[in-house]
Amino acid sequence: MIRIGIVGGTGYTGVELLRLLARHPQAEVRAITSRKDAGTRVAQMFPSLRGSVDLAFVEPAQADLRSCDVVFFATPHGVAMGQARELVAAGVRIVDLAADFRLADAAEFERWYKMPHACPELLAEAVYGIPEMNREAIRNARIVGNPGCYPTAAQLGFLPLVEAGLVDTTRLIADCKSGVSGAGRKAELNLSFSEASDNFAAYGIAGHRHHPEIVQGLGRRSKTPVKVVFTPHLVPMIRGILATLYAPLLDRDADLQALFEARYAGEPFIDVMPKGSLPDTRSVRASNVLRIAVHRPPDSDLALVVAVEDNLVKGAAGQAIQNMNLMFGLPETTGLEAIPVLP
Amino acid sequence: MIRIGIVGGTGYTGVELLRLLARHPQAEVRAITSRKDAGTRVAQMFPSLRGSVDLAFVEPAQADLRSCDVVFFATPHGVAMGQARELVAAGVRIVDLAADFRLADAAEFERWYKMPHACPELLAEAVYGIPEMNREAIRNARIVGNPGCYPTAAQLGFLPLVEAGLVDTTRLIADCKSGVSGAGRKAELNLSFSEASDNFAAYGIAGHRHHPEIVQGLGRRSKTPVKVVFTPHLVPMIRGILATLYAPLLDRDADLQALFEARYAGEPFIDVMPKGSLPDTRSVRASNVLRIAVHRPPDSDLALVVAVEDNLVKGAAGQAIQNMNLMFGLPETTGLEAIPVLP
Amino acid sequence: MIRIGIVGGTGYTGVELLRLLARHPQAEVRAITSRKDAGTRVAQMFPSLRGSVDLAFVEPAQADLRSCDVVFFATPHGVAMGQARELVAAGVRIVDLAADFRLADAAEFERWYKMPHACPELLAEAVYGIPEMNREAIRNARIVGNPGCYPTAAQLGFLPLVEAGLVDTTRLIADCKSGVSGAGRKAELNLSFSEASDNFAAYGIAGHRHHPEIVQGLGRRSKTPVKVVFTPHLVPMIRGILATLYAPLLDRDADLQALFEARYAGEPFIDVMPKGSLPDTRSVRASNVLRIAVHRPPDSDLALVVAVEDNLVKGAAGQAIQNMNLMFGLPETTGLEAIPVLP
Amino acid sequence: MIRIGIVGGTGYTGVELLRLLARHPQAEVRAITSRKDAGTRVAQMFPSLRGSVDLAFVEPAQADLRSCDVVFFATPHGVAMGQARELVAAGVRIVDLAADFRLADAAEFERWYKMPHACPELLAEAVYGIPEMNREAIRNARIVGNPGCYPTAAQLGFLPLVEAGLVDTTRLIADCKSGVSGAGRKAELNLSFSEASDNFAAYGIAGHRHHPEIVQGLGRRSKTPVKVVFTPHLVPMIRGILATLYAPLLDRDADLQALFEARYAGEPFIDVMPKGSLPDTRSVRASNVLRIAVHRPPDSDLALVVAVEDNLVKGAAGQAIQNMNLMFGLPETTGLEAIPVLP
Q1: Pairing assessment for the beta strands D270-272 and D290-295 based on DSSP bridges
Q2: pTM of this prediction?
Q3: Cβ-defined contact of A187 to B185 (cutoff 8 Å)
Q4: Are residues D116 and D228 in the same domain?
Q5: Which of A1, B38, B220, D119 has the greatest number of C-beta atoms within 10 Å?
Q6: What residues contact residue D212 under an 8 Å CB cut-off, 6+ apart?
Q7: Is D116 part of any domain?
Q8: Active site annotation includes B119
Q9: What's the ipTM?
C-alpha cells in the first residue's frame, strides 16, 4: 500500500482526491491537513464521503507527512514549495496540484504568481505531470508539478499538430470554456448561483496564469516559436472543460484524423473520437478520460480541435493519481477506471 | 413625481427596485446609498442598468433623504428602525423591505432577530404591506413593513381558506421552495454555483424567521388559533417561489375554486388558475403576479394550494412599489405592468 | 459470472445498468435489446461508454435471453409481463424495472396502467424489490418488481414510523421533488431545457402511478389503514429525489432518532444522518445510498422525515443490481461501492 | 395603431413577439395563426400571457392578414415566401423572422435550405433587417428579412473592424455560444434538460446555415473578400448569445476602443462597454440591447471582440419590432425600453 498524505484537503481537488483514493486498491491515505478545519471530520464537511472516509483534518504540524510515500498538495499556490525541501530530503515524493512546480522558469513563476520561488533547485528537477507527454520522466520524478485544468486540455489538443510541425505555431487560438468548479471551492459573489447560472461570459482576457503554462508545454515539443491566444469562459455547469482550438495549417493535405489516432494509440485515457463526431463534456463527467475530435472547418485553412475533460479529474485529481501510479510502478489506470456519469 | 430614496441599494432587492422604478412614470429616484460602495456608479456594479440609471451610490450621511417623499430600505434587518423616527418626523414615508416592521410584537421581533427594537412606538403604527390583505391601511400608512417572500406566497395561498373558516388552522403545512436569489446577493459557499446547482435540499426546519410572520398574518384573519409547519427548500433556479400548502378541510363539500375566485376577484396581481391546472414559477418570472391553484388531492380531506411568485418582485421590490402606489394615490399597477419573461 | 440480458437498454435506466454492470466483478452482459436501435453500437449512442461497453443493440428476437441467468427489463410498462412466462419457464430470473410486477393486485395494476395483466399467476409470486423491506424473499425470487423512484424514498422514509405504530397512518403527506431524468430519456416539450430549467412546478396531483405503490408497501407493514397524499414536483436538476414526509405523531415522547438508527442499523445503503442535520441530493449523486434525516418541527405534533436518493441508482438501476446480488448470493454491495460524485 | 398579424405564433419567437407587442403603445395584434393549435387560447398555451393577451390561435386561412399593416412570420423556413406575393400585392408589409429573405442569392438560399425560392423577384427587393447596418433601406422596405441570432452578434461585432479595413477579412473566426432557446420550442431529445444541462458542446462545425448570412453581411461592407470560420456551441442557459470574435489586425496601432465608440455613437441598442471590461449574457437578458467589448489579447496581432445579446430579443423578436418601428416612422425604441432582468 502507498502511504499518502494530503495537504489542504478542503477544496474540490482535495475532496476529489479523497473520492478517488478511497477506492484505489493500493492507496492508504494516512493524513489530511487543514489549518482552518483541523479537528473536523472529513465526512462532516463532505457528507458524500460518509461511510467511505474515516479521517479528520489535522494541523499541518501534527501530520507526520515524512512517513508518507507521497504527499499531494491540494493547496493554494506557494504552499508546496515551502515544504518540498524537507519532504524530499525525507524521501517523500510530491505531487503538487497547485502551480509551484509547473513553470520551469522561476522568474516566469514569480511574474505570474507574484511571489519569489522558495526552492529553485527543486524546480529544476521537477517534472511537468502530463503522462501523455512526460511518461518516462514522471516514473522517476521526486516532484511532479500537476498541470492546470485548461493547460491539460489545450496542450493535449494541440500536441499532435505541433509535434508534427503541421501548423503555424505563432497563430494558435485556444477558446476555452470551463465549468464553475474550476474556480475552486470559494465564497465569491461572482461564483454564486444567482450570478453564474443562466449566464455566460469570458474572463481573464488580459492575462491568465494558465497561459504561460500552455506556451511552455507546447514550446518544448515545437521546432518553431509558440504563440497562443487563450480566452477562458465560464459555463453554467459544475464540472467540465471544453477547449475549441484553432491552428493554421501549413500542409492542407495532411490526414489529421490518422495523425491524432496514431499519436494517442494505446493511451488509456485519451479517446480520439471517430471522424466527424464531436465530444460533449458530460461524456467524461467524473472520469479521467479526455476526448478529442479534430476537424477541418469548411472554406478555411485551419485545423479545428475540440477537447473535453473533467476539470477535477483529468484536469486535476485524476491526473495526479495517474502520475502517482506511474511514480510507484502501478498500472497507470489503477483506481481510475470509473465510467463517466451520464446523464 | 414621487421623490424616492433607496437605502442600501447593492442587493438584489435594491437592483430590482431600480429596474422597476427606472420605468415607473411617477417615480424619481433621488438618492441611493451604500456605505461600502459610496462613489461607485450604479451602472458599473450592475451593467444591466447601463443607459437606464445614471446614479452613483452615496454615503448615507450625504443622502438628503428628508427631502424625499418616500424612502425604501433594502438593507439588512435593523437599519430601517434606526432611521425611522427622524424620517417620519420629517414627513417622509417609509417602506422597509427588511423585517424591522413586519412583526407587530417587539418581543417577538427581538426573539427572532436577536436585537432590541429601536422604535416600538412606530412599530405600533406600522402597516403590514400585503395590499390584498391591508389595502386601506396601506394607503394612509407612514411606515409599511414589506413582507418576506415566503410569507407573501404562504399567506395569500392559505388566506381564502382561513378567512372562510373552512380548515383546521392548527394543522397547516407550508412546504415551500425558493430560488437561490431569495438568499440575497452574498458571497457564501453554500450559495455558490458548484454547491447549489444540480442539487436540492431542505433547510431551516428548526426555525425560520418567516415562520412567525406567516402565523401572525393568518392569525389576524382567523377565528381560531393558527399553527403552521413551515419547511423551506432551496431550488437550483435564480428567481421564483412555489408554495405547496396543505390544510385539513372542516367542510368537505365546499367549492374551493369558487371560494378562491371570489376572494381574489378584481385583484390585479392575483391570478386564480382554472380548475385542474397548476402554475409554474417561470409563468410569473420578473413580474408582480402571484398565481394560485387550489386542489383536492384524491383519497384525502385536505385542501392543497399551490402558489407561485417571483420572490424579488411580488415577494419584495414589486410589492414594495405596489404599496408605494397605494400610499401616493396612484393606480396600483403603475410601473408594474411588465409581462413575465418566458422562456 | 452471472450471464445477464437487458431488454430495452436505450433509456436512462438502461445506460445506468450498463455503467454499473460494466464494473461489476461478477456480471457479464450477454445481450442488450432494442427494437428501434438494433444494430447500433451502444457506445455510439452513449459516448460515455466508449471503451467500456463493446456491445451493439440487437433485435429482441435475436437475443438468446433464455441462456441468461437473469434478465433486466428497462422497458416501458407492459413488456416484461409479456415475456415473463417463457423466461421463467426457461429458468431465467427476472428483475423488471418497470411497473409490471410492482402492484400485487392485478385489478389495481389494470386501473393505473390501463392494460390487463398478462400473467397474474406470476404476479402472485413476484417479490417487491426493496431489500430493506423484503431481503429474504428477494433471495429466492424468480421475479422481482423493482420499485419506482418516488416509492423507494417515500416508503423507506415512512417505514420506521409506520412499523412502530407511532403515527396516524391515515394522514401521511409525501411532498416529493425529483430531477428531470426521472421522467426518462424522452423528446418531450415539457422536459426540454428551455421549459424545465430555471423553473419549478408541481404535477400529477390528481393521481400518480407511484401513489398506489407507496400505499401498498406501507400498508403491508402497518397495523392500521394507510392513506397518503402524494405531491410530486419537478426540480431543474438531472438526478436526485428528495422526499419531505409529514406524519402526525401518536406518541410525542418517542425518540425518533434512535428509532431510525435502530431500524436501519447494518443496512449498507441506508444512512441515517446525525440528529439535526439535513441531506441534500448531491450527497448521493451517482451512488446507491439513500440518506435520511428525521426531525420534529417546532410547535407541531408531526414527525418530519427528509430522504434523498439518486433516482437512477437507488431509485432504479442500482437497486435492481442490489436485488440481483441478493438473488445470486453475492455480497449485497458488489459493484455498488461507488462514492457519490460531489460537487 | 399598427394592425399586426403574426403567422406561426407557437414558438419562442412568437411568444416573445406577443410579450413585447402587448406593451407596445402603437401595436395592435389582430390575428395570430397556427395550423396545429387553431382554436387554442394563446394564454392557455403560454400562462405567462394570462391577463395580457386575449387572443386565440386561428387557422391561417381564417386570418384576415390582408387587412393588416404588417405581418410577422415566426414560422419555419419556407412559409413566408409562399405568402409574400399575395400580402405585398395587398399592401401589407412583411417581417420574416425565418430565413426566406435573408440570403440575397436564391441559389445560395436553395443550397442551404434545400428548397427552391418561391419568389426570387421579391427576394431582390427584400432588405436585410439589421437597423445598425441598413436603417434607411428598412424604412421603406416592403419586405424585411430579419437576421438570425448568431449573425446579428457576429456581424455587429466584426462590423467596425471590417468597415475600417483594419483586419484581414479572410481569416476571421467567430467562436459563438448560444443558450438552448436558440434551437426553438421543440421536443427534441438533444435539447431535453437531462441531455443539455450541466453540459457543454460544439455543433454544426461542418456547416451551419448562419454561416453564409454572416459572410454575406460582412462582405457587403468589406473592400476585401470575407472568409469566416464559424463555430457554434450550446450553453446550458435559456437565453443569450455570446460571440467571441477573432480578427487579425493589419494595423497594430489603431485605437480600437475609439473606433467602436465612434461607429456605434447614438445607436440606442448598441452598448460599447468601457475599455477593459467584458459583457455577460445576463446583462442583456430579455432586452433588445447588444453589448460589445473590444480587446487586444497579449502577445498577439489580433483584435478580440466579445458581443452579447438576448437571442430571442435583439436576436429575433426585438429586432423585428425595431424594424417595424422604422418601417412605420415610429421612434426606433418604441416598446423596446425594457431593462434587462438581472439576476
Answers
A1: parallel
A2: 0.97
A3: no
A4: no
A5: D119
A6: D103, D108, D112
A7: yes
A8: no
A9: 0.97
